[in-house]
Amino acid sequence: MLFISKYANLRLILEPKRWKEIDGSKFLTDGLTVEFQNGQFSTKDAELVEKLKNTKAFGRDYWSGEKGKDELTPEAVKEINETKEYKEKLESKCPDCGKEFGSEASLRGHMLSHRK
Ligand SMILES: [Zn+2]
Description:
By secondary structure, the protein is of the alpha+beta class. It contains 3 helices and 7 strands.
């Protein structure tokens, strides 16, 4: 399963490292961290896929780019780019008045005007 992020180097901590005590000795667990490269992360690990689909960031910071495929086809790249554009468009739209902006920064600036 291929996951796509709008952030080129998204880092997701699925399981934080933590101290575990076994028979009176303390061990630091490995934890589980996923790092996207160029906005992509691919895995065939079904358990990991499940974990990735169950975070709060799924659908917000990243999403699955393909429908069950593991390799990037030209169609998939096109789909990803369209999804990205769609996401970016959604994100640059004011939720209060629906006005669209070219960048997240200008939207943020605009949204301050609603807070009076
Ligand atoms: Zn507005």
